[in-house]
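Take a specimen:
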Amino acid sequence: MMYYSFRDDDMQGKIIKGIAGFYYVHAGSKVYECKAKGVFRNHGVKPLVGDDVDFEVVDDGKSIGNLTRICPRKSKLIRPAVANVDAVLLVSSIAMPQPVSLMLDKCLISFMMQNVPVAILWNKTDLEADESIIEIYEKAGFETLRVSAISKAGMPKLYEFLQGKTTVLAGASGVGKSSLTNLLCRRAEMETGNLSKKIERGRHTTRHSELFAVNRQSYICDTPGFTFVCIDALKKEELKHFYPEFYDCEGECRFHGCMHVREPDCAVKKQVGSTIAKIRYENYVKLYQEIENARRY
């Protein structure tokens, strides 16, 4: 990435939304509508939601400015395209809609492939539902949180998790990401004044990745609902590394480099139904075969 010079009177902020060539920058208690200078386009540099930037104020009364510099990024997600992400919370409902473990696994793998810490946030825990799936993922080694956007149960722990981070909320439509975002950012709206008005918050269908300030040090990114998750770049030999519950026993397999699918005397297969949940192993086999078949064509 290239970085550009800036003047002493430039301000600093964070891009919270980008639409049609306009970038909305949160700085202090205001949101500025900015355009990217031509130097960015000339060098093929595209600002991203989550970028820390310097900008010059063109009209302070109307909160209009120009981006002058993109600060160095510490991380970058491809799907969704967000910069400087500290963690991903994969949001799933315990019911309505029912969780689909295969899709959960695909999403977890997708973010793990991008080297971003990922945890699972289970919403709608106020509903009567079988919570055994939560225990399956906890047992597999994933950090989990339980909340209800209706009853507010679990919200203090969620606030604690978010402190000092930029966290992406990801998951399918209907699991409650936007409802949680509205709850989490209610106090921030009071602090930032015109934040909601400037970026037209309040819509329940998320069409663009967008950052919201939980407080001055913490942001969450509400992303469009995932309808397709791609792990095409993953090789079948690599898939097992994304199932942490395999780690403790795979060294005991008869064959070095065991894929835990067709080989005899496989220690992983022997633990299915015990230390390894059956549904997780079945998902692993399905994804292994999916990757294997894709490579044939």
User: Anything to note?
Assistant: The chain is about 25% helix and 25% strand. The chain has a mean pLDDT of 86. Residues 278-295 form the longest helix (18 residues).
